[in-house]
Task: structure prediction
Amino acid sequence: MILQQLYADSEAILKACTVDGKVPPPMYDSVLVQWEVQLTAEGRFSGCINLGEKGGLRKLVPYNYGRSVDIVPNLLVDTADYALGILDKNASKKHMAFRKLVAECAAATGDIQVQAVEKFLKGGGVPPEHLPRDMEAKHRVMFTVGGRMPSEGEKVRQFWDDLTARECKGKKKAQGNCLITGQHGFVESILPCEIRILRESAPLISVNEAAGCSYGFEQALNGAVSRDAAEGFTKALNALMRRNNTHLNVGDMTYVFWNRQGPDEDIAAVLDQSDPEQVKRLLNTPRDIKSRPASRETRQIPVDFFAAALTGNKTRVVFRDWLALPKWQVEDNLHRWVQAQKIISPVGDAEGCFTVYKLAAALYRDRKFRKADVPALISAALRGSPPPRRLLAQAVGRCRIEHRVRHEQAALLKLALTITNEEEASSMSALDETNTDSAYVAGRLLAVLEDIQYQAQGKLNNTIIDRFFSAATATPGLILPILLRNAEKAHLPKIRRKNGPRGWMIYNGIKNRLGRLHELLPATSYPPALSLEEQSRFLLGYYLQRAARAKKTEASESEPSENQDLEGNNKE
Result:
């Protein structure tokens, strides 16, 4: 299905990705050309121009089926060993094949410019004294006649279209039914072009071993497609991978995004860059768009957004995942994704939105994520589902090891818990003092006890967080009573003594604060052992309580006033 969709949308994709909005002719592609051999209308040599100051000039030229050990010339534009017969041990054979193809084109089209090139090649080509010293065998060379490229002629394009439709490397093609279009005609044993993924180029259909063949078919005939279909989906994929904001590289995997109108640039900007303007546009998009169906049962939902994940090597390109959904649904899913991870920073300032890379990196000490982590997050974002539970376990484990909760970790914990509950996602962006979830309240209590110790003893090398954070996260029912008794016997009396006349007032404010937290717990009991999700809520309660305290401390820039308790809240 995904290849059929790519082929169906290939024209729209290619039009959007070209400067002039035109789809390249069959078996033509845009490549870098390093040298121009200038000829007169009579086919005489006029000059050789270097076009390679910046790697060459990009030109729309004919291309042929891939060549490894085979000698396969391209029409009129090719590498120096083919076009000029130099700089390679097999250059003479390659050049003869190139000349034969030019002669065949000249005879079939009667084009005077192609005839001029043929005449020039028969006459010996570029004079040796005019060959550039810095020309290399793999540099592409094009011919111009009177300042024009013969390969741009309409007759030449038609000749190349007809020839490559029925022949592959000089052999007639087999006929069969195309699996993409369903039409009967010539089908490909070798796909005409390769997909350029990251630093490799490879075909999408490639069968080289006998074990992969069946019913007597060889190579790509085991998944027969026509030339036009193969060109369509291959060129579309290459165009999406070249264009900014229409693809996303994740390790050795590449995601591409498009819709029926062409490339889709909105999705990668949110997932890859967390572009503030793009995120703002997404959040401000009305969520009651008229095009959305009122009911799935009463109206067919149009699918108009597509995403595919690919990996590749020198042998073949493989689809690892793909998605087909209505665009409004994907935007809804991304809207929930952004809202679900929004949470105040550790100092209580503006809420953030993180890229999938930062969320994945938060799971590891060295900030290097596993290959499978980012694709899992991207899939969750596009499908509107929670991240895999293993990522939640990894995030909780990382926090327990580090004895803290970083901003990205808090965002991932909140994302996993609230992506399917928008009301909860909104309430957990900052501290919610009315939340009665026992794990959440227990986390808040740990943060308050941490602050009580700091107020009593100042900065220490070994705090209750250093000693008890991991155990308290998993079994608060065992740890928090011990910490609370220690605070009441040692820390609170010290706070009362060191603050002089205000000591009793601060002491009573802290006791009131602890009392309000206990009121949120059922029968003032602490939760015993916590599940993975409960540990996540514990960590969020701890993180948000500390962030709220940091914000109030920054606002007051001093200790609590006489009318405030230790947490900076007005006692009235």
